[in-house]
Amino acid sequence: MTRNDLVIRVAGEAGEGIVSTGQLLTQAALRGGFHVLTYSQPPSEIKGGHAFFQIRLNAYRSYSKGDSVDILLAFNQEAYDRNAAETKDDGLLVYDPSEVTPSADSHFVQVEFPLNDIAKNQLKFPIAKNVVAVGALAELFGLPTKHLDSLIEERWLRKGEAVVQKNLDALRAGIDYVIEHVPQRDNFALYPEKTHSGEIMVSGSEAIGLGAIAAGCSFMSGYPITPASDIKEFLEVHLPKTGGHALQAEDELAAIGMVLGASYAGAKAMTATSGPGFSLMIEMLGLAAMAELPCVIVDAQRAGPSTGMPTRHEQGDLNQAAFAGHGECPRIVLAPTSVRDCFYQTVNAFNFAEKYQTPVVLLGDTLLNVRSESIPRPNLNEVNVIDRVLFSENGNGVDSMNGEYNRYVLTENGVSPMSIPGQAGGQYIATGLEHNEAGLHRYDEATHTIMTQKRFRKLERAALEAPEADRFGNPSAEIGILTWGSTVGSVIEVIRNAELEGIELDMLAPRMLMPLPDPQLRPFIESKRVIILPEVNYSGQFANMIASQYPRDYVRVNIFGGMPFRVDWLLDKIREEVAQHV
Amino acid sequence: MTRNDLVIRVAGEAGEGIVSTGQLLTQAALRGGFHVLTYSQPPSEIKGGHAFFQIRLNAYRSYSKGDSVDILLAFNQEAYDRNAAETKDDGLLVYDPSEVTPSADSHFVQVEFPLNDIAKNQLKFPIAKNVVAVGALAELFGLPTKHLDSLIEERWLRKGEAVVQKNLDALRAGIDYVIEHVPQRDNFALYPEKTHSGEIMVSGSEAIGLGAIAAGCSFMSGYPITPASDIKEFLEVHLPKTGGHALQAEDELAAIGMVLGASYAGAKAMTATSGPGFSLMIEMLGLAAMAELPCVIVDAQRAGPSTGMPTRHEQGDLNQAAFAGHGECPRIVLAPTSVRDCFYQTVNAFNFAEKYQTPVVLLGDTLLNVRSESIPRPNLNEVNVIDRVLFSENGNGVDSMNGEYNRYVLTENGVSPMSIPGQAGGQYIATGLEHNEAGLHRYDEATHTIMTQKRFRKLERAALEAPEADRFGNPSAEIGILTWGSTVGSVIEVIRNAELEGIELDMLAPRMLMPLPDPQLRPFIESKRVIILPEVNYSGQFANMIASQYPRDYVRVNIFGGMPFRVDWLLDKIREEVAQHV
Amino acid sequence: MSSVVTVEKRKVADYKGEERPTWCPGCGDFGVLNAVFKALSDHNFDPKNVIIVSGIGCSSRLPFFTDAYGFHTVHGRAMPVAAGIRAVQPDMPVLAMGGDGDAFAIGVGHLVHAIRRNLNICYVVMDNAVYGLTKGQTSPTAERGLATKATPQGASDPAVNPLLLALATGCTFVARGFSSKPKELADLIARGIAHDGFAFIDTYSPCPTFNTVNTFKYYRDATEDLPGDFDPTDFSAALQYAASEDPLYLGLYYQAEQPTFEDHIRNNRPEVIKDPMTVVENLFEQMA
Amino acid sequence: MSSVVTVEKRKVADYKGEERPTWCPGCGDFGVLNAVFKALSDHNFDPKNVIIVSGIGCSSRLPFFTDAYGFHTVHGRAMPVAAGIRAVQPDMPVLAMGGDGDAFAIGVGHLVHAIRRNLNICYVVMDNAVYGLTKGQTSPTAERGLATKATPQGASDPAVNPLLLALATGCTFVARGFSSKPKELADLIARGIAHDGFAFIDTYSPCPTFNTVNTFKYYRDATEDLPGDFDPTDFSAALQYAASEDPLYLGLYYQAEQPTFEDHIRNNRPEVIKDPMTVVENLFEQMA
Ligand SMILES: Cc1ncc(C[n+]2csc(CCOP(=O)(O)OP(=O)(O)O)c2C)c(N)n1
Ligand SMILES: Cc1ncc(C[n+]2csc(CCOP(=O)(O)OP(=O)(O)O)c2C)c(N)n1
Ligand code: SF4
Ligand code: SF4
Ligand SMILES: [Mg+2]
Ligand SMILES: [Mg+2]
């Protein structure tokens, strides 16, 4: 059998090497030319508790985590008990018999693997247990040894030759055990027909950090929160290299406050948070909108409301991103659809923020931010970076009547040239009060009417420049799937699988969700007989936004259990719909 | 000519008795049996600056402030300059010639009124200037003297007989001046055909405070903000009389935090704020939703975004009220449509909060909260007060399996009996984490799915019990006006005026805006040929909500200058629409 | 939840909840939890009459492990929630528990005001100099330079001194405890609960998982009890000892009597309390 | 905005904005504004190189009346905005101005952290014990019992002592000024600007419209200059004088040298600054 798709899950007690086992394997597979996509579930509790790390290996690119597990490595009984159900009936169970007793009626191919014994008694190196496991798993799916050898060398080099050798021995022990005890491992060997070359392995959070640096961000302030803290920590380390700075504020109100200060002072600035922190930023989102200060707010969504389930997935913050803020408060909302897209949409977020002098909310989520994917290395020469328009004396932004700089001069597209402190003649007061073109607070009807229009005119223009929507499937299919964000991954696989059954589907996923990009949406919505709107939330937040602008019937498909869509489940749903509409 | 509608505006320098003049006149008119509705514009600036106080007197009930002014009393030149345009061409201008020079081409009936001279030289009592003015104005529209006399006595009684007499003299001086110098004042005299008996004069903020007390509110915490501070100040004085307490918190985050603590401890609790403060409460709105804690948040909307125009009007916070909060965050939103309704909807807000254990947002606005109206005295015997359902040992909320109290026991309507600290066996942990029936935090798919449904099931039930919508007009008219909140006042007058021209209109204004009350909306929306949606905001926030659930074409009418709808302007718009759709 | 305990004198076990603590093995918070049990049993409170409020953090999970009423609020907001509870139930003992991030970063504004109001609660901050729950970023009590896995560059700012802050803002009971001195800590908490006013107990409670510097051993070496003859009514002595960095003193620094938040609420009430509808009817009368 | 002034030595008038102050006649803030003009002209700053940050309140309107760059933020958030500005423009003088409600009620949490970071700005709080802009509710610096039109029952809690708070949280420049001593105040502000670190100047600035107790006369009677031989490097003396309620001392209480927020940012930068795309490309390399 030729297999080109394999899901491996390593499960056990949190903090006992689950993640490092997974990461080693991931990196080795990347170097081996496989496409890799990871998925992990941190424990809900502080330490201990059950955790797993999952790796999907594929000869082609995969778009979702994979519905079920091909190879389960269970470190302990709880790991077996909790993950057996998600493992395929003909899957492979690898377990240490001293820890795990599989149930009597198990259908799995079972491999007893005395991990602890090998590490402790054979190698006399108990902490190498994870490396032994890596060797065994790699051998199972047929990864050439060289990639692992070199990884281990790189990883332990600074601990000295002896440590490297001990780990190489551990690796070899794992490999040998499998060779000896699993003769029919062909079934799990992966035959990459088409391998990638030179992809990089990044998480969504890293991709956002990289995008920010590439876009010219030089200031970041954040407050720790799952699953957004990684972005801050990444930028704390790497932003100073460009002369920028990232720091931990005392809370989210301070984080966004600092960002607005930095933006006023001339920097491209951002913060990153998750739901609870985002809720605390709403007042100052309005200040940014009113004072027309560029800024980027990353909201890595998690399951809510309130503290909710910090480590679980949900697309529940779209309402908040699009509509929170008292008064008529313009902002742009972007949602990347994959890890790779996190990089590009972060660049776009800064570009829109700077060009239109408006807050931009970038909606990540637990699924995207936490997982790693092998992605083609972005070509930085093709990355277009936009800077804010500055006023120039006797030029841009200067009133022809009195020769003075007007910070909020009315223009066709609503954008007025900014000044940066230190610029002569550029003095103005940024304020959250309604103000006239000069920036002085004014409360008359005409000013408020004109200035409200000005602020929203910017959005109208931005909508016309929305990033291309994510498309997949057959453009002439009568059944359309309209979705957003990370759900795109599941939908792409659904469409691929549906095609095999002869069901034609067409997906549109706008990356700009506020304002809605009419040129992308209208033709799609008008041309489909049935439109299905899958979202990981209860109320159909995107569906409501679409319906409010494009009256027609829609089929809403919503799940809200803290997990992403299973491809098979969603395909079932769509089959039902198709049956009904034939 | 018989006149039964009169708009009087007193304008001048803020802080110089504008408001007290207006209030005296208002109270006197109330006692005289007129229906009264006030409107004022505080200055945008701190002190000084221009301010006015407007009184609309009517034989019948009026619903809007009145588009234009019949009698303008201008205390100074700026007052004249700013308000002349809003005064009717055949209106009456009363001014002190020592302060004001009307423009040469003025069409007004002009009455020179040497106010300062009378007060200073004739009465030797300069600060009685306002009372002189009150006398003059009252005489102009024909108010029997006795009401003024008794008011003045009450007002100055504790200052002694002499002061009372001096003010009575001032009053008389004003009356006499008018009798002598304005012989043809018939034109401004009001002939109440049908006077009210025993109405009370309240502002929207007071009505909310009264409603809260009537509903059994015993705790209020707030932070000063225009135009909501009045509510806090009212309750600080009056809540202790019932054994309750109102206090000023250190900020809005603390205010809502205290409210949730009080609610947990067993009290009916509320806060009141305006846009910027409301934005700061969003995180804890989510906590209330998740922990299922009853609470009432009054948001007295003002023009935004950000600090915006603190003294100006806008219906701009509906999006925020309905959709802010990360995750799927249930809440109920109510919007009173008049000052009188502020009382009843506040009672409803507490009833819904307690019955459904959910946050309720009550949307006031600058127009409603600040103005006073003569309203029929609510019959307290008919006010229905609902208390939260409490668990009882061996009864409500106790698990039949293990005999233990489960705070979040699943029920048909989603409501689970609460306990109050001190209740034996009722111990539980209120938390913003997802939790099981016992209140213990759990992150599995089933729990989050079931509990999300439970929280929203409550809203579905609440929608069926929505307060009756405000209706006006001809139910069989083909043109419907769908609106909300204080815009109802202008719409009612539009409909009355349109009827005189033979245009039939029908208004529906739901008082529950989230969830949308389907039984009220669907028949209306389905039965009208044209539906017009007027709102004082830019993006049509209510229109978007309606369109997202009821696909069809709507005519949106939006203004956003910080002022309410003028009746004549809106009627023009509707005439245009009617012409197009014939 | 277990049913009401009716024995005369309650034991520590009577305050335990059904939920087992989920803290990492070796976490300082276990010791604090035990001290809380002990203090509650010293007072012999019925668990149904105790409310424990917390914010968000590892330490803030504490209410779940007890059999009291509890409110696990949101990050940094334990103080206002506690104030709301006390305004309504001024006779029920309220404990507030939480971490240093919760208390001194996001929550410090509320702390200042809760202290100023002299809210009659006992607030125990479990201080580990890191944000445990979010995996070990440095907190405002971290010494400048403290490096952790999540803050590899080291804490950038000097540490706040919670005791000085409390003293400066008018706190009427200021103490420092240590998780590994459970008896002394239980005693401080019991006294803090007995205190009429705001009792603040900053408590060293190491996080072995993310803070490898401020360990149990570190605090054992760095701390010393306040001198035996120390006078906790002497404000300037309290300031002086609180400012000390070596040693770090353990014990009760300061205690004073002042009107409380609850006193104010009681005083604000008229002698005769009226039915709400009567109050409203009277107001209508005035508005006619 | 007027064009750049190029004279050698700038005068007070060179800092005035086009907008006239909108404060009530007799408001203390006029005196503070003049002192700011004076301090700026003492430094001879070019207005285009000065940034004034404020919150919301009557006092926070001050930036509108100057010709500097300004940021009138939202209520209570002047400190983080100032920090963001300084992180990006660490060489441009930043003044923060605002009211007591802004600083000590909604904003006190940020104040504690701005002080702790030793953010190099000069923060002048115009203290009138009330919320002027919202029509006179009592603020955290109102003495318990102070009654105003909007707070007829009187302030319920004791006042915060801003100087003690600043000292306790590690402020490196702590002073008290008075609007009706414009020369001294200008001098304090000028020194606060010159100070390398967080300069905090609590300034009595009466609100005649809403606070009829804490008037100019009241402060004139209640205040006294710090003794001539007072040593502003003596922390305990500073604490002691700051705690005094009668008299209320005016002048510089404390000044110290400590690393600043900006120092940390500078130290955090590598010697060689790289182009962003190069940094990204290098990271890609590591991720392959
Ligand atoms: C508004 C908000 N911001 C951030 C978080 C994420 N968060 C959870 S716990 C925590 C800090 C915990 O530190 P601490 O209070 O010291 O408690 P510990 O875990 O150390 O006991 C943070 C930042 C949150 N839950 N809510
Ligand atoms: C979030 C928020 N809450 C409340 C307000 C209303 N508000 C405006 S100014 C102010 C207080 C002003 O007092 P202070 O800071 O002392 O300044 P002052 O007017 O006395 O100079 C308040 C509460 C607001 N603008 N924003
Ligand atoms: S992470 Fe630290 S604070 Fe949290 S439970 Fe573990 S040891 Fe305790
Ligand atoms: S209200 Fe008070 S603080 Fe505000 S401007 Fe007037 S006097 Fe000054
Ligand atoms: Mg901590
Ligand atoms: Mg003030």
What does this structure look like?
The complex is a heterotetramer, with 2 copies of chain A (582 residues) and 2 copies of chain C (288 residues). Chain A has 582 residues and is α/β, with parallel strands linked by helices. Chain A is 38% helix and 19% strand. A 7-stranded mixed β-sheet of chain A has the order 9-8-10-11-13-12-19, with helices on both faces. Chain A has a 6-stranded mixed β-sheet with strand order 2-3-1-4-5-6, sandwiched between helices. In chain A, strands 16-18-17-20-21 form a 5-stranded mixed β-sheet, sandwiched between helices. In chain A, strand 2 (35-41) and strand 3 (50-58) form a beta hairpin. In chain A, helix 5 (145-156) runs antiparallel to helix 6 (161-181) and helix 7 (204-215) packs across helix 8. The model of chain A has no long low-confidence stretch (mean pLDDT 93). With 288 residues, chain C is of the alpha/beta class. Chain C is 34% helix and 16% strand. Chain C has helices at 29-43, 78-88, 100-106, 108-117, 162-168, 182-194, 216-222, 235-243, 261-268, 276-287; strands at residues 51-54, 69-72, 94-99, 122-127, 130-131, 137-138, 173-178, 199-204, 223-225, 248-255. In chain C, strands 2-1-3-4-8-7-10-9 form an 8-stranded mixed β-sheet, with helices on both faces. A two-stranded antiparallel ribbon of chain C has the order 5-6. In chain C, strand 7 (173-178), helix 6 (182-194) and strand 8 form a beta-alpha-beta unit. The relative contact order of chain C is 0.13. Classes of the chains: A alpha/beta (582), C alpha/beta (288). One iron/sulfur cluster binds at residues 23-24, 27, 29, 58, 128, 132, 207-210 of chain C.
